[in-house]
Amino acid sequence: MQPFTMDARAVFAFRFLMGWTFLYAGVTQVLSPDFTVAAFLSHTKTFHDLYAPLTNPTIAPTLTFLVSWGHLLIGLSLVSGLLVRISGVFGVLLMLTYYTAHLDFPYVENKLNFVFDFHIVFALLIGWLVAVNAGRAFGLDGWLAERGHQALPAHG
Asked: What is the pTM of this model?
């Protein structure tokens, strides 16, 4: 096992913080009987015609389930460092979806966010975590990778 550098510690810190953000959102949404994506999506502006149909009573419950459990699973993945390269892609897509849903061009959600907001920052951060294979820094991806290398037979 290689010693962890300051870079690995920073990767772990960002992965854990981003994971905690998703995990907390997921837990509160899964446990809340009042959470629904319809409330959020009914207030979209720039891409209202795209998101408004998703508030339909036949679609919204399924989408609510997917969003709340998606947050929870992405959070668990990032916190534990397991399957980060897979969950990270879904995290980026979710953040970009939220960004476009909040967009009231050129503002995002309110007049304090001009063109960009934290959803773009989070999407970029998660993309970076995927690119640097962040699950290997103090995570289960690294533990599994090490176990896989130990299990391989030596070449003769």
From this structure: 0.88
